[in-house]
Structure formats: structure tokens, C-alpha cells
Specification:
This protein has helices at 35-50, 105-126, 147-167; strands at residues 8-15, 24-27, 30-33, 54-61, 65-72, 140-144. By secondary structure, the protein is α+β, with helices and mostly antiparallel strands. It has a four-stranded antiparallel sheet, sandwiched between helices. A two-stranded antiparallel ribbon has the order 2-3. A hairpin with a 3-residue loop joins strand 4 and strand 5. The longest helix has 22 residues, at 105-126.
Length: 168
């Protein structure tokens, strides 16, 4: 019942299809992105350019997944609230299930995943390779509810390459 359009901080994890290491490798506890990993980072940074209600926080591209903290604001970044037009929640008539709620966490992640998939498969075609399914269908999220949880989540993201290497 939580409204994922609500202002707040969210920790997301998006995994590759079948846990394939499309985005690089960990060497000596450091993530070394390949061209696929660089595409993921590029498309993630575009999220804030394309969605002014989004603030990007800590993130990491891993060989077979992506972690990030994303903050949804009620006012687009850099725009005073007094300059915002009144908001209405009257969407155009669309059959249920055919469109994700705009400005929701789901729509953001799905747009990001789509952009990465398109860019990866364009690069694969240029290399003479066949297209691939890049991501799992779902993603994982957690609402960050306190400053301590935000700091702990940032630390987890930053330390993820070292922790991943230790678990191998």
C-alpha cells in the first residue's frame, strides 16, 4: 500500500538476467567496468537530467547487478516550490495495467533498464553480436527511513566490491 511516488529515499538493486556478469569484473576489491558497465553508469546519470524530481545519491555498477540510492522530491531540483504549477492527479484514460504511474520509482527503474538494454544491444550489434536480455524482470527496493539507515546503505554500496570479492 505504499505510494512509490512519495517523497523519500529508496535503495534499489537491479540484477542482470541469470546473474550474467555483463558489466565488468572485480579486481583486488575494485570494480573495473567494461563497456557495458560504462553504459549503465552513463544511463544512470541521465536519470537526473531527464527527471528533475529525482536526486541521485550513492550508486555502484557491479559485474551482475546495480545498487543505488535514489531520492524522489516533491519539487524538481533547482525549481522553487512557489514556481511550480498546481499538481493534478487526473491521468488520461488508459486501461489498467498498460502504463506505470508517472514519476514513480517503478517508472524510473523501468525506463533506466530499457535505456541500458537499448544501448547495450546497439553496441553488441556494432560488434557483430546478437542482442541479449540484460536485466531480470523485477528489481528490489527498500524505503530508507532514517539518517542512520541512509548512512549504512551508502557504506554498503561503497564497500560492495570489497565484500563481493571476499565472498567469492
Amino acid at each position: 500500500g505504499y505510494n512509490y511516488k512519495s517523497q523519500g529515499a529508496y535503495f534499489i538493486t537491479v540484477c542482470t538476467d541469470k546473474q550474467r556478469p555483463y558489466f565488468g569484473a572485480i579486481e583486488n576489491g575494485v570494480m573495473k567496468p567494461n563497456w557495458g558497465g560504462k553504459i549503465v553508469e552513463h544511463e544512470w546519470l541521465r536519470v537526473a537530467e531527464l527527471r528533475p524530481e529525482i536526486v541521485l545519491d550513492e550508486y555502484i555498477v557491479m559485474p551482475n547487478h546495480f545498487h543505488a540510492i535514489v531520492i524522489i522530491t516533491t519539487t524538481p531540483v533547482g525549481v522553487p516550490a512557489s514556481d511550480m504549477p498546481p499538481q493534478t492527479d487526473v491521468p488520461p484514460h488508459v486501461p489498467t495495467g498498460l502504463r506505470l504511474p508517472s514519476k514513480s520509482l517503478s517508472s524510473l527503474v523501468n525506463a533506466f533498464k530499457g535505456a541500458v538494454t537499448r544501448a547495450v544491444n546497439i553496441e553488441r550489434a556494432a560488434r557483430g553480436q546478437s542482442p541479449v536480455v540484460v536485466w531480470q524482470g523485477r528489481f528490489y527496493d527498500r524505503i530508507i527511513r532514517s539518517e542512520k539507515e541512509l548512512l549504512d546503505t551508502r557504506r554498503y554500496i561503497i564497500e560492495n566490491p570489497q565484500n563481493q570479492q571476499r565472498s567469492l
